[in-house]
Structures are given as C-alpha cells and as structure tokens.
Amino acid sequence: MRSSLFKALLAGVTLITFVCVESTAAQGAPFWNPKQDKYPAVKRVAKTYTYRSARAKGNVTLPDPYNWLERPITDADVKGFVADQSKMLEGYVSKCTNRKTIEQSIRDAFEYDDYTNIDFNTNPATPFYTYSLKRAGDDRYIWYIATPAEMDAAVKNNFATPPGKKFLDEKFLSANNTATIGNWQTSFDGKYFAYMVADSGSKVSTWFFRTFDKPLLSGGPSTPLGGSGTLPDVIPNVDGYFSWRLDSKSFFYTGTLPSAGGSNTDLGSSIRYHVMGTAYEKDITVVKAEPEGADGSNNYWSFTTSDDGNWLVVNGADGSLGYGRLYASKMTGQAISGNMKWISIAPNQEDIMAPLNVIDDFIYVRTSRGALDGQISKAKLDWSKAKQTSDLKTLKDKLPLTTVVPEVKKESLSLAQAFNHDKVVTLYTIDGSYAVKIFNLRTGRFIGQPAPQEHPGSLFIMVPANKGTSIKLIMATLTSPRKVYNMELVGNSIKTTLWTTQSTKGVNAQDFVTETMSATSKDGTIVPYLLISRKGTPKTGTAPVWLHVFGAYAYVESNYYDPIQLSWLNSYGGFVAYGSPRGGGDKGEGWHQAGQKHNKEKTFEDTAAIAVDLVKRKIAAPGKVIGHGGSAGAIAITAAANQVQSSFGLLLGVRPVLDYFLRKRSRGGSAQTDEFGDVDDPVDFDYVRAWSPLQNIPTKGNYPAVLMTPGEGDDSVVAAHAFKFLAEAQRDHPNNPLPMMFYLVPSGGQDNYGVSTDAVVNEGFYQQCFAQLALGLQHKK
C-alpha cells in the first residue's frame, strides 16, 4: 500500500487530500509489449462485395477478407478464432492483481433496491399491484404482487421492506439463467399474467402465461423456457406488441420469423389473434406479413386497441424512426379475421403516426405531420367509408388531421400515451433532459407537469390500463439510481407524491457535481456535453475521463444510472462525461436531422470535438479519454477515433456496430437505412463508405487501445462486427503500443444487458481492468 498526494480546489480554499490506492500500474508500465505480445494469426479470404457508387459513376468492389467470421459462433473455425483471442485477453487481464477489488466495486454499485415495472391493476374485483425488484445482493429481478394497503404502508417507510409477496423469480425462467422478461401484461380480470421471455438476448421471444396462484419460485437443470407451471398457451416467434381484449379470453400480438442467429433478414412481421385455451397453430393472422423488398426492406407491424375495446389500430413502418402507415378497424359488428373492414388514415410512410386512442370515432395520434418536433392531432373516422380487404396496401385514403396539442419548437415530443380514457401523458426532450406533461386528449388543455424540478437521465412511465387514474414515474441519474413518483389524477389536476428514493450504499448524490459544458465542432457548431465528478475534483489535465456517446435515432443517453460508470468514477477518480452530438435528440428533431444519414459525419466530428475539448480544458489528461458507446454509439467513437486518432486513449464498444455493410446483411439492418443510409443506394453508399469503422481503420500512426464487448446471443448486432474489426485492426497495427482485443459476453445480447448483476460485474471488470492496464490508472481501495 502507498499514499498518493494531490491538491483539490474547493470554494477558493486549497485542500490537501490523502487517498489510499492499491499499487497497480504507472503510466507506461510494460503490461503490453508489442515486440513480445503478438496477436494470433487470422486467415484472410478472397471474398468481395460489389456496390454501385454515384461518385465513381459505376461499380465499386470492396474486399471482405474476414467475411468467414460472419459464420455462426458454433462454426469450428470461428470457435478457434474466439478461443485464440480469448486466451490472449485472459493473459492480459490476469495482470490486474486487484480483480476482486474491481469486481466488488462494481457490485457495490448494485447495493440499492431497484423497484421498477410498477403496475396497478384496477379492473379486477379486488385491485392489486404487480412490480419487479432486484434487491441489493440479488442477481436477477423478482416479481411481486401486493395489495393497495401493502403499497400504502411501504410508501410510509420508503419501501424498506418489499410489500406483498413474491410471485416470479426470473432466475428460474430457464435452466441456465439466461432468459429474461422483455414485456408483460396482466389480463383485465386479474386472472392471467402474460410475460414475454427472451433467451440469451435474442430479439425473437416467446409469450408464456400463468395464473397468479401458480408462482414461479423454484427451478433446476430441467427447467423449461418460461419456467415450470405455465399454461398450455405458448406463443413462439414474437417480438413485443400485445393487447388483451376486455373479456380477458383472447388477445392480439405481433409475430415474427426466427432470426437464424441474425442472418435471416426477413422479419415476417404480422399481427395475430389468439383465444386462450386453443392451440397456437389455430391463431388467426389478422394482418399478414408483407414480402421482404428487393432492397431488403421489411415492414414492421405494431398496433394498439382503444380503451373501450372497439377499435384495432395498426401501424406499418419499415424504418427505425417510426414513419408509418396507419389503419383502423372497428371490431364491433364483424368477426376477427384476415379479411376485415378497415379505414385508411395514412397510406404512406411519410410521417410519424403513433396512435393513442379512439374516442367518439376520433382517432388521436402523436405525429410529425406539419410538426418537426411532434404534436398531438386527431382525425375523424367515418365507418361508412371502411373497405373490406386482406391487403392493407390497397387502401389509399389519407385523412386530414386537426391539431390538439401543438408543437413546441426544439422540444421534441418523444412519447405520448393515453390513459383514463381522455387524458394523455407526454414526454418531451428539452436540452438533453426530460419533462413530463399531462393534457386533456379531447381539448388539448394542459393539466399539469409533475416533478418539474427533476431532470432525470432515464425515465420510465408506467401508465394504467383502461380508466386507471395513477401514473408511476420511475427515474434515475448516475448518482441517484432510483426515484419513484406516483401521479394521481384528481379531478382536473395532478397530485404528485414521492413514493421512494433509493440510494446506492455508501454514495451520497450531494457529493457530486454536474456541469454543463460545450465544445466547438469542426464547422463551428456548439456541441453540449455533461460533466460529472466528485466535488473538488481538480481540473489539472491529469485525470481520466469516461466519455459516453450515442448520437443516433434522436435518442438521448445522458446522466443515466450505470453501475459500471459509477464504480469507475468512485474507483479511479476523474470524470464521467455524456456527449450530445448531432444525430441525438438533445436539442429537438432539427438536431437529430443535422446528424442523420448524409449528415452522419457531423456526429463523428462532434464526438471528436468533445474528446479534444476535454483535454484542451485540462479536464482530461492527453491519452486518457475513454470513448464508450453501445451499438450506434460504438460507431460514433470508432469513426471519430479513425479520423482523429489522438483524441482517445481507449475505445470501449458495447454490442458494437463496426461494419455497416454487415449491418444491412443482418436481422433488422434494413430498418436502419433511414438513419444511416442504404449501402445499396449509389449516393448513400459513398457516404457510408467514407465512415463505416471497419473500412476506415487508419493504417498509419498509433491507434487507441480497444476493448469491444460483443454479445454471444446478439442476433441483431452480431458478434462478427467486433471479430472482423479487431482482426483488421490487429493486422494493420501489429506493433501498436496499446492492445486491441474483445471480450465475448456469454449469452449476451442487446435485450438482456444489465439484467443479471453477475453478468454486468463480469463485463465491467474486463472494461475497468483493460483501462487500468492500458492507460496506467490507479484503483482506489
């Protein structure tokens, strides 16, 4: 043990602070010696793809020498590659002699009670709550049922003891503890609990059903998927949308096709109808799947039912941004079938058209029509003009819309959900944070803005079914893992009550400071970012900074709770930064479009500008900016590093997209073209070719350290992205002074990240250990 002495300036007073640290690595310590530490040899093949290029005015052929790594992970050659790379990684991280300390630090960040998915079922004769909870020390979520009286009592003591009784333990959803619940819905009569189970992070799931008198609290090596004690109704090959009918005897759901490990690009999206107690094979296809387009495009069906149970409203989109066709069918007076009467509301995918409810034959929608940042509008449904068809594409009517809740410029209407028949709760994104507002859906009258003082980094809104009056807001920031507010509709106003605040053991949110900073991008645009640190952390140009970036789909990823990031901040000092490059939704839809498709380069320029600004302001030490991003965020950090190699010391890509040409060949890839471009379009090809990370790894100069963490079970962003990128980077930079590797997360996928505490602790260890060794960081005890 030794002591480290540093100075911190706080309120104009110079403080001398002693911090105990474990003796680990000093900057430049010989944990990686490229003359001795050689990368495994990886074979190259003569595979090529040919694309049309507008710039070349003809065809362009791209070599793909590591294409064979796109084979299934079970392939013998791919298994050999993974084994060789994993052996190298394990040898490297074995030099972190403080592994247990790192793991315990991350585990400590889970030391709070994570209450979520709180749902009040008001329709049964005896109303009850369901919720899920992962307590400090638990690996998986456990679901509970509780009476209103039990919940009221828990509110009085800050939920010190979980109210009610355990009903379902997610660790018993499968024999190998890799399954998780991705969606759920209780039937209106309170009899059935429907839950959608995804195994190993797959995008293709299965619906299971059980009654509340059959809890799932045990299991073993022979446990079937979904757990023991389920009802015979089992619905495979589904992807999320579900709605009970009011009589609780039947439901609608969306079906899909198996993913084949991500290689099947045909989604086969359909809307189907199931009657409880009947075989899945007898389900009625209400809206059939549309054929995959010649360009690989797929139609994604989603739907909602009106709260009076009379209307089925379906939306068909072929992209990731929600621009869709919209149709409505009145279910009264006709049988559920594949040849029903429909009204066409929006026959083309020109605008966002998200249905909310149908009231007195008016349909209410969240839409971008005539409103860049979104608004709520309505249209009159004239049933006399409905047409019977089995093919909705034959319907061409486009209904005029009337504004109900008008657009607010630069405040993006990110979400809206109807409740209590004619009320709507909305979520606005304002300068990188969220604001919840409630309106009367019929008139557009503003009712209230609960918890206006809160600016959470993540926010879940739990809306009651049917005519329920209470909404739950479940929010978090990096230093405050869980707050739950109850919003009760009382007459024409909202009463907001703080139900619980859960804090991480040993962490006081008041000990941290959040600053709003900005960088100047290449074209002069001012790009905001948040900076979080312990109060008094000096800005002397010696600290490491963990910079998280996403920058796509108009999403906002800023100041959310992440145990790995909080652990890192507590263990290594320094700062956590959240970048808001163009392409995200931080400053409205215009900010998103400024970094979308042909403007995508701006996302990468903004990301590099933030990294450079952190060093310029002496917040970060040169070479100690850690670029962190998941999925599209991994594109941002690697594309930025490819262009400005010195801007980062380490790249951490989680389930990373690194070969955008492979993304188009994988499940769901065609839906990303509205955000990033279509590689099969000659103009788009030229833009994508200029930034796709794999195809633009620089061959000269030193490259940052790299640790990618692909998921073994990810059938959307397949692990081959990381495999191919690292194989090429290692070949191009065999003598790089910093290592470049990957950790294949067992059974990992996009849809189960963060579900298992043990899995997060393990992945976090590799990330923190890698940073510690590569950047010469010191872990505080």
Automatic annotation (TrEMBL):
Classification via Gene3D superfamilies: alpha/beta hydrolase (3.40.50.1820), Prolyl oligopeptidase, N-terminal domain (2.130.10.120)
Keyword flag Signal: yes
SUPFAM superfamilies, per the entry: alpha/beta-Hydrolases, Peptidase/esterase 'gauge' domain
Cellular component per GO, a single term: cytosol
UniProt xrefs under InterPro entries: AB_hydrolase_fold, Pept_S9A_N, Peptidase_S9_cat, Peptidase_S9A, Prolyl_oligopep/macrocyclase
Domain Peptidase S9 prolyl oligopeptidase catalytic residue range list: 565-733
EC number(s) recorded for this UniProt protein: 3.4.21.-
Pfam families per record: Peptidase_S9, Peptidase_S9_N
Keywords: Hydrolase, Protease, Serine protease, Signal
GO molecular function, one term: serine-type endopeptidase activity
Catalytic activity: Hydrolysis of Pro-|-Xaa >> Ala-|-Xaa in oligopeptides
GO terms (BP aspect): proteolysis
Signal peptide positions on this chain: 1-28
Residue ranges annotated for the Peptidase S9A N-terminal domain, each copy included: 59-492
Family of the protein in this entry: Belongs to the peptidase S9A family.
Quaternary organization: Monomer.
Protein name: Prolyl endopeptidase
